[in-house]
Amino acid sequence: METFILKATINGTPLELPVDPSWRLLDVLRQKLGLTGVKEGCGEGECGACTVLLNRKPVNSCLILAPEADGADIVTIEGLAQQGMLHPIQEAFLEAGAVQCGFCTPGMVLAAKALLDNNPNPSDMDVKTAISGNLCRCTGYVKIIEAIHLAAKKISSGGDNI
Amino acid sequence: MIPCFKYHQPAELEETLELLTGLSGSKKVLAGGTDLVLALRRQELSPNHIVSLKRLSQLKKIEIGHGEVHIGALVTFSELLESTIIKESFALLVEAAQQVGGPQIRNQGTVGGNIITASPAGDLLPPLLALGASVKLIKKGSERIVPLEQFLIGLGKTTILPEEILSEVFFPVLPNNTTSSFFKLGRRNSLAISRISMAVILFHDAKGLINDSRLVLGAVGIKPFRATLAEKSLKGCLPDSLLLEKAITSIAQSVSSSLGDRSSATYKKRAVQGVARQALCKAEPIFQSGNG
Questions:
Q1: Å from B5 to nearest chain A CA?
Q2: Which residue has the higher pLDDT, B258 or B164?
Q3: Is the pTM of this model over 0.90?
Q4: Which residues contact A128 (CB under 8 A, 6 or more apart)?
Q5: Which pLDDT score is estimated for B292?
Q6: What pLDDT does A22 receive?
Q7: Angle between helices A88-95 and A105-118 in degrees, nearest 10
Q8: Contacts of A55 in chain B (CB under 8 A)
Q9: B207-237 pLDDT, tens per residue?
Q10: For A107-114, what is the mean pLDDT?
Q11: A22 in helix, strand or coil?
């Protein structure tokens, strides 16, 4: 199959990658770039474990053909920590005990980031809607919601590393 | 996995239409991909060519003028929800778009894609049908307009030709004193396909009498349809709890005939009454007063 030269910025780094057009963005991120924080939970857009931020919006990378990400700014979970310092959302998830097996966590954190970037003071309903595309089989969601509210407080009280 | 295909990402509309006419072999047009990529992965489709509309920014507009609202085919559900034009006057569209999939799906999936997939349970279809929408189909050298009701054949089929793209959907603005709503019953509150859905438009006169209505049911037939008997029962009436019950009974009867012998019929015949109650009360709060 004819390769497509994908030009995209991934976690702040502009890249040019020859890709097979039948690959999904998920495959490019995991297999080509080793960004295995992006998980394949269902491959059908039904679980959100493959969530990445594309031009600041959460999307299911399992449903995006690689060439469709051309020109995009993509952020994966690996792009959140800066110079070894965790993002306030990551810190909040740890403090609140919102991680059990951790498989849903990258997707949850990115969904939370997209929410808090747009809505620094979300209601409970706003948080639930923001993660309504992300399934968790372990935690029962309560601690994840608490973590996101905690993250909102951390960020608005001047947490660095935004 | 995903079968092989030749991928095209034309920069302009003309180039796109040229490709769709000129390419030999089977082709599929790619918009948001939330349905198409899934179908490819499940190997339900194996087109020779995929033509992406990604670069056609002119298909992303939402415009109002001359008494009509025009929505470009590539508008995503999220973009629909951000539109002041839609938020101000079209509660039924807002409520439908809000309940499609989850945030990730809404950021990728498009209005045009929802129409072309033409699922019997497609969430934008009952509101668009209630609004009397039409679609514009363009191919190299010509374009045509088709009322949405005729465009949808049923069970995932439309009258689109392989060399055409759906460029926009449009509908008349609603008059003053109109209320609308959309209600969806799914197995979950999110990431759920509608099991039953209903779009409601109620046209009132200045005194609050229901002049006319559009009641469109989704996921209870091969394509969404208007409950015309129920619409007649509301005509010229003052909304009260008796009228509500009359409308619900009529809707249940229409659905019963549409469902036929499906295994879901027993459940849906009962459940549609609850859906109708919710949808009608959302559009007409007066229906709720006096109700237990």
A1: 7
A2: B164
A3: yes
A4: A145
A5: 41
A6: 96
A7: 120
A8: none
A9: 999 999 999 999 999 999 999 999 999 999 9
A10: 98
A11: coil
**What does the pLDDT read at residue B191?**
95
Q: Cβ of B5 under 8 Å from any chain A Cβ?
A: yes
| Contact call for B30 and A65, based on CB within 8 A | yes
The span from the first CA to the last CA of chain B, in angstroms, equals 53
Please give the average per-residue pLDDT across B25-48, as a whole number.
97
What's the confidence (pLDDT) of residue B2?
87
pLDDT at residue number B290: 57
* pLDDT surpassing 60 at residue B278: yes
B37 to A67: CB separation less than 8 angstroms, yes or no: no
Ordered DSSP codes for chain B: -PPP-EEE--SSHHHHHHHHHH--S-EEEESS-TTHHHHHHTTS---SEEEE-TT-GGGG-EEEETTEEEEETT-BHHHHHH-HHHHHH-HHHHHHHHTSS-HHHHHH-BHHHHHHH--TT-TTHHHHHHTT-EEEEEETTEEEEEEHHHHEEETTEES--TT-EEEEEEEEPPPTTEEEEEEEEESSSSS--EEEEEEEEEEE-TTS-EEEEEEEEESSSSS-EE-HHHHHHHTTB---HHHHHHHHHHHHHHHHHHHTT-TTHHHHHHHHHHHHHHHHHHH-GGGGTT--
Residue A79 has pLDDT above 60, yes or no: yes
pLDDT of residue A107: 98
Q: In the 8-state DSSP scheme, what is residue A29?
A: I
Q: Any residues with CB less than 8 A from the CB of A93 and at least 6 apart, and which?
A: A99, A105, A108, A109, A144, A147, A151
- Contact call for A57 and B107, based on CB within 8 A: yes
